[in-house]
C-alpha cells in the first residue's frame, strides 16, 4: 500500500464510515458517476472488506483506476482511504 | 500456382483471424448480465439477492431479480419492513431449536438479528431495495404468486416490475451470463 497522501489532488470525498457491505462499493459507484474525467474521489470506510471489494470493483471497470489505498487510525478505529480516479466517461 | 494466390494455410489463417475479430466484436459493448431468482422471504434470505444485485449494478451489469413465492414479501412495501428470521432449523443461530419453537421464538430471533444489523452498519432491506431500484436493477414480482398470495400490485415498491411470469424469467436467464437461484 502507498503511504503518501499528498500526491493526488482529491476533488471529492465520500464518507461511508460505519457502513458495511455492499454500501461502500455501491455508494462509491454512485459518487464516481458524478466525477469529471481526471478527478479523484477519496472514499473513507471502516469496513475492512472494502479494501478487497473496492480494488476488485475498480479492476473490472475501464472507467476508473484505483490510485491508492491507505489506512489511518481514528480513535482506535481503522479508517481505510481509497483514492479512485475517473479515467473515462 | 501463381505467386499471389493464397495457400491453404494462408486461407485458414485468414479465416481464423476473421473469426477471432468477429468473436471479439461479439458483446464487446454488452454489459455482463445477471439474473437472480429469489424464492425466500425470511430476513436472512432477503439479503443475498439484494446485496449481489446492487453490487452487480455498481459493476455496471444488467441485473434482473425475479421474485416468486415468499420472496414477494421482499418487494412488499409494508411486509419487507417486518421480515422474520427463525431459529428453528437454523443451527447457526445462538439459540436452541427448542427455545426457537416456543411462542415468540421467531420474534426474539428477529429482534436479535435486527439489533446486529443495526450495530454492524448493515443496510436495511428497504435501503437495499431503494438502492437497487435507483441503480437500475429490474426487480420483478412473479404474477402467478402475486395472485396466489392475493396481493394487489400496488403493495409493492414503486418501480417494481409486475405482470411477469416464468417465461419472462427464462428469457432473461437464457441471455444472462450468470443465473442464480436463491
Automatic annotation (TrEMBL), chain A:
Output the PROSITE patterns linked to this UniProt entry.
Answer: UPF0033
Q: What is this protein called?
A: UPF0033 domain-containing protein
The organism's lineage is: Archaea, Methanobacteriati, Methanobacteriota, Stenosarchaea group, Halobacteria
Q: Which family is this sequence assigned to? A: Belongs to the sulfur carrier protein TusA family.
Q: Which organism is it from?
A: Haloarcula mannanilytica
Any Pfam family the entry gives? TusA
**UPF0033 domain ranges (all copies):** 14-38
> Which InterPro entries does this UniProt record tie to the protein?
TusA-like (IPR001455), TusA-like_sf (IPR036868)
UniProtKB/TrEMBL annotation, chain B:
InterPro entries to which the protein is assigned, alphabetical: DsrE2-like, DsrEFH-like
> Which Gene3D superfamilies does the protein's record reference?
DsrEFH-like
Name listed for the protein in its UniProt record: Peroxiredoxin family protein
Which species is this UniProt entry from?
Haloarcula mannanilytica
Amino acid at each position: 500500500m502507498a503511504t503518501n497522501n499528498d500526491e493526488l489532488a482529491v476533488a471529492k470525498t465520500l464518507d461511508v464510515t460505519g457502513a458495511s457491505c455492499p454500501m461502500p462499493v455501491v455508494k462509491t459507484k454512485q459518487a464516481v458517476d458524478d466525477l469529471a474525467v481526471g478527478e479523484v474521489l477519496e472514499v473513507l470506510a471502516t469496513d475492512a472488506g472494502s479494501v478487497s471489494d473496492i480494488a476488485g470493483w475498480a479492476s473490472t471497470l475501464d472507467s476508473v483506476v484505483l490510485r491508492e489505498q491507505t489506512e489511518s487510525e481514528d480513535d482506535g478505529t481503522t479508517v481505510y482511504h481509497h483514492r479512485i480516479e475517473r479515467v473515462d466517461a | 500456382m501463381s505467386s499471389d494466390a493464397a495457400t491453404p494455410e494462408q486461407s485458414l489463417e485468414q479465416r481464423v483471424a476473421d473469426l477471432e475479430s468477429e468473436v471479439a466484436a461479439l458483446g464487446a459493448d454488452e454489459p455482463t448480465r445477471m439474473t437472480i431468482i429469489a424464492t425466500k422471504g425470511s430476513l436472512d434470505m432477503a439479503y443475498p439477492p439484494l446485496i449481489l444485485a446492487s453490487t452487480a449494478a455498481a459493476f455496471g451489469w444488467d441485473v434482473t431479480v425475479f421474485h416468486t413465492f415468499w420472496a414477494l414479501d421482499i418487494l412488499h412495501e409494508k411486509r419487507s419492513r417486518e421480515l422474520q428470521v427463525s431459529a428453528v432449523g437454523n443451527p447457526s443461530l445462538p439459540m436452541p431449536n427448542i427455545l426457537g419453537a416456543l411462542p415468540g421464538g421467531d420474534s426474539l430471533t428477529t429482534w436479535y438479528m435486527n439489533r446486529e444489523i443495526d450495530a454492524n452498519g448493515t443496510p436495511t432491506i428497504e435501503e437495499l431495495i431503494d438502492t437497487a431500484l435507483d441503480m437500475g436493477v429490474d426487480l420483478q414480482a412473479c404474477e402467478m404468486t402475486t395472485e396466489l398470495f392475493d396481493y394487489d400490485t400496488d403493495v409493492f415498491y414503486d418501480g417494481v416490475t409486475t405482470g411477469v411470469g416464468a417465461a419472462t424469467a427464462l428469457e432473461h436467464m437464457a441471455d444472462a451470463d450468470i443465473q442464480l437461484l436463491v
